[in-house]
Amino acid sequence: MDKLGIRRSMLSRIMPAIGSLTKRGLAGWLVIFGAVIVASIIIMTLIAPWVSPYDPSTGGINTGAPLTPPNSQFPFGTNDLGQDMLSRVISGGGIMLQVALLSVIICLIVGVPLGLFSSYIGGMLDRTICLVMDSVYAFPGLILAIAIAAMLGRGVTNMALSIAVVYVPSYFRVIRSQVLSIKEMPYVEAAQSVGAKSRTILFDYILPNVVPSIVVVATVNFADAILTAAGLTFIGLGVEVDIPDWGWDLTNGRRLLPSGVWWVITFPGIFIILLALGFTLMGEGLSELLNPKLGE
Amino acid sequence: MTLRSYIISRILLTIPMIFILLTMVFVIVRVLPGDPVLLHFEKMENPEAIEKMRQRLGLDKPIWIQYFDYLSGLLRGDLGKSMQDFSSVAEQIFSAFPATLELAIFSMVIAVSLGIFLGVEASKSYNKPKDHAIRVFGIVTYAIPVFFLGMIFQIIFGVGLRWLPVGGRTYPTMEPVGLTIPLAPPQGGFLTHLLLSCIAGLVPFTLCLAALKKKGKKITRKILGILILIFSATWVLWTLIGWHYISMGELRIATGLYTVDSLLEGNLYKFAEALRYLFLPSLTLGLVLSGVFIRLTRSNMFETLRLDFVTAAKARGLKETTVTYGYAFRNAFLPILTMMGLQFATLLAGAILTETTFSWPGLGRYIVDRINFRDYTAIQGAVVFFGILVSLVSLAVDLLYAYLDPRIRL
Amino acid sequence: MQKQLLTVEDLTVEYWTRRGKVRAVDSVSFSLGKAETLGVVGESGSGKSTLGLSLIRLVPPPGRIVKGHVWLEGKDLLELRESEMRNVRGRKIAFIFQDPMTSLNPVKKVGAHFVELIRTHEPKISEEEALKRAEKLLNDVGIQPERINDYPHQLSGGMRQRVMIALAITLNPYIVVADEPTTALDVIVQAKILDLLKDVQNAYAMTLILITHDLSIALERCDKILVMYAGHMVEHANIKDIYNNPQHPYTRGLLRSIPNIELAEQKLEAIQGSPPDFLNLPKGCRFWPRCSNAMEKCRETEPQLIETEPNHFVRCFLYGDGKK
Fold first, then answer.
1. Residue spans of beta strands (DSSP E) within B78-203
2. Within 13 Å of residue A46, how many CA atoms lie on the same side as its CB?
3. How many angstroms separate the CA of residue C202 from the nearest CA in chain B?
């Protein structure tokens, strides 16, 4: 297969898509802006091993004098273990991104089929599942995540799992409302009347129309997952201490606050905000593009 | 659908939901990790101690019996026993709850006021810079982890400027004790008490009824109706239960909310201190929560302001403020009320993080402490409490909404 | 020439949308004397409603009045401060909206609307007095005075429109602008409402600006007519002249398309084509794509307004270049 050809054709399809985004007004720009932020952070995290000036993990303890404020040698200062904060910030997004990604994947695998089948089939099964979903949805998300994470223990997978459990009802609801409205559409009826199989209808007719909403929920899911992961880490349900993580820096840096050490929490915190903001902006933009509310 | 049938169906809906919730928590805490007691003792302590704890907590029985005990216990108000000292989790929760309640109320007030104000301003200058700035503000505040914002405030106001305290609920020894009313049993005992309270209650009661009769706006009449309900309930309670306090010689009114209690006590210093400590935590939580209200108010107001009758009102020469608040806002108010109910859950979740940051001695910090101590039965009890609380609050909000919204009663 | 009550000069209103600027009203000028009736006629989207709203400066954003003057009592309304303008609204110029279902505040009683209106402009009046005046006004428009205690949703469409009319005349304004007051009502009620407007107008010697898409209504009830197309004023004359000597091809088309009950076999004539897209206006005369008399010149340049007979204005190259 002509690899170059494939890359070129993909590029030739992506570029116009991006180009069309710029024409869609403010919403399009939001998506682009958010995507750029997210992409930059992902890239930064990926190239971290090559780019960070010092070793941010346990190997880098005492790289510099502990608790030095930002200066020319350590632009973000050092923490109480003498690690360079800049390096820690550059490498610190990994855990959160992994948790977020994993939770979204789990949600998609579980939530989407559940939503599709339940609302399409209807009946008692649908009503029961709906009730369960509503109960979970009504429950304060973070508390549920805390409960699950507390019982399962630390680790990326467990965090992702607890976030996913909390979020599946959102996917379910969104998909369900879409499916219910599409189910009534004349073109679906038409397909059914010529004997199309349920599976075909679901996958060829309904699913493609539901995808935009799923994308929107997924981006919001990402943003929320980042914040929840940070929260869980703050409470002590995060990951093992070794790996550089923004959430952990916040927890650790908290002890240092009364002594006036502000740099350990500030920079990681700003990056958490940026990451969450990036996803939120994308979500806002996509949501407006796909369901324009306040038109002219 | 009539109001009555709505109320009934809504209450009926809550029951299975709470049930599912309780089962969920049970599964998570008892079933998921396998053995919570084992988890509590990370390293294998002597098997005797483990077995003893199991017995005392009733965790050695088969799962089905445990489940049954759990549910029946809840009906009695028993939320389990702590793994730390086998004391009642329910007691611990109820003593920690008022602090969280106080934080929640103040944060909600801040969030709603800020949200409404900014939302109205944004809707008035639609698509102009002010509108965009406010929308950005709303989005950014939502993306900030609440504990990070809290810490930033601590740095700026606590450590840097030294204006406000960074932790705790009030200055030690400044805890309010509420109002203690010395009561003397009247001559004639219980019967006199009954008589007196009946007479005392009738006067305001008839006044309120008279006020109801007067032609008034529908909403004020409804609010008056609610007030009468509350008043009558208090009156009945006092008549029946008040005797208990009278015979004891004093009635101690303490809500557990420091702001209220200090006012009850009449001590303004304590009140000021309580507010000082309350300010940063509730500002933090309120700020993060406000984004939702900004967006809601903005879109509601925008739609309402575009409606014909608003333009028609302007065409009659009415003032801008009259039109904005009198016309448009009335119609936007009810969704805000519902949103307040929906956000209660988020509020509690955020409270956990805020309380940890500010060492605020509420339910949130209690849960985090219990997690650190691996006290799983306590965690279970607290989570159940949260869940039931949220369900009841959302039930109350839904019912209130149905009562106030003229459209539901057709 | 008697002094005119209202003079509109070169009024231009644009909507600044994301996709471009839309000139909904382009250089409209006319004047009206006391107790006269002007009919503003045009298709949907011709700019007539915007014209009406611009007279009281309530064009909704993203619309803005970019040029022109509206002279009333010697003052240019477009120069007034907002507080002064509020004084004009309701008191000197009253506006009746198209849809009576949505123009009244659903949570306020009928009487409360009047009280609010009266007390905003005349704060010294007490609530009881205001209600009394309201009852009388309701009576004048043919509604039982007891209805003062009803909520808008308890009245029918026709009654609500009557309430709107009553509200409009409450403060005895000089001018009443009625934007398609009957479009949302059924035919029988339509006639009654229009009759009511006429009676009220006569009783109070008011000037009426009637905005409508229905030329036949305008012909029946107005003294002068202003025909709008795509934001432009294409013809303006008094009734007789329009009827006997319609000059602009669009006006002629409108007249031809009015069904005549006496000609049983008549085929309904429509004007070919469809209204233009404001973001993509044709070059030259905006009407040329639909005009059977279109000439070369029409596709190139926009015609100017010409006075062909006294007080008969037309914007069409058939009558000259407009260059004097």
1. 179-182
2. 6
3. 22
Residues A278-293, mean pLDDT to the nearest whole number: 79
What Cα–Cα distance (Å) separates residue B88 from each residue in B31, B63, B80, B265, B341? 22, 22, 6, 30, 30
Contacts of B146 in chain A (CB under 8 A): 231
Torsion of CA B370, B372, B377, B379, to 10 degrees: 60
The pTM (predicted TM-score) of the whole model is 0.73
From C120, C161, C108, C162, select the one nearest C137 (Cα to Cα). C162
Contact of B386 with B347, CB cutoff 8 Å: no
Tokens of B108: 């909600």
Q: Which amino acid is at B74?
A: L
To 5 degrees, how large is the angle CA A109–CA A113–CA A118?
A: 145
For chain A, give the number of residues. Answer: 296
Chain-centre distance for alpha carbon B172: 25
Greatest mean pLDDT among B203-212, B340-349, B397-406, C262-271: B340-349
Tokens of A56: 């941010």
Supply the DSSP symbol for C37. Answer: E
Phi and psi angles of residue B382, each rounded to the nearest 5 degrees, phi first: -65, -45
DSSP structure string for B274-338: HHHHHHHHHHHHHHHHHHHHHHHHHHHHHHHHHSHHHHHHHHTT--HHIIIIIIIIHHHHHHHHH
Look at B39 and A151 and tell me if their CB atoms are within 8 Å: yes
CA atoms of B109 and B275, how far apart (whole Å): 14
Give the nearest chain A residue to C18 (CA atoms). A25
pLDDT over 90 at B286, yes or no: yes
| Contact between B367 and B139 (Cβ < 8 Å) | no
Are the C-beta atoms of residues C72 and C85 closer than 8 Å to each other? no
Cβ-in-10-Å burial (0-12, 13-18, 19+) of C268 comes to exposed
Position A146: which residue type?
A: I
Residue A229 with chain B: CB contacts under 8 Å: none
What is the model's pLDDT at position C39? 92
Mean local confidence (pLDDT), B110-126: 86
Q: How far apart are CA A184 and CA B389, in angstroms?
A: 38
CA B297 – CA B90 distance, rounded (Å): 38
Is C60 within 8 Å of B311 when comparing Cβ atoms?
Answer: yes
Taking alpha carbons only, the member of B234, B229, B235 closest to residue B201 is: B235
Q: String of b and e for C234-255 (b: at least 16 CB within 10 Å)?
A: bbbbbbebbeeebbbbbbebbe
CA angle B70, B75, B80 (to 5 degrees): 40
The DSSP H or E segment spanning C41 is: strand C37-41
pLDDT tens for C150-185 read 888 888 888 888 898 888 888 888 999 998 887 777
Q: Is C20 on the interface with B (CB under 8 A)?
A: no
In terms of CA atoms, which chain C residue is nearest residue A26? Answer: C18
Decide if A296 touches C, using CB distance below 8 A: yes
